[in-house]
Amino acid sequence: MNEITLSVPRYRREVGVVAPVEGGTVRVELGDDAIQLFGDAAGLRDLARWCLSLSDPSVPDGRHIHLDAGHTPLSSESVPLLIARQDSVNATPPSDPGGRDRGIRQTHKGARWEKQRMMMVRCLKNTHAPCLAAGLST
Fold it and tell me: Nearest-CA neighbor of 46 among 71, 64, 63?
């Protein structure tokens, strides 16, 4: 059987979560009822590597990465993507215990884009209050 094999470096606390990329492209869109991912083969493998990196047993619960539009693997037309490690059985973020928050559609559109971008920068520096409140640390 032919297999596709991906590998990523082991997690090291002093470096954080890292994943090598091939330079593919992925576009994330917010549909009416679903988040939609479109990508070329290399982009989908790049996205898979980020998920694989976060799945390392040494990665602490709450670690996450932000993928920003226009930066590999996300296309410039993409909405930003946050991928988080959350080890609880119920993977609903603590800030939305009922899983009903659909406000994300508004978070990444129009005039709020720059505000969201700055929130990502603060999150990467461990100063983004919503991520800290939700237990998501970099």
Answer: 71
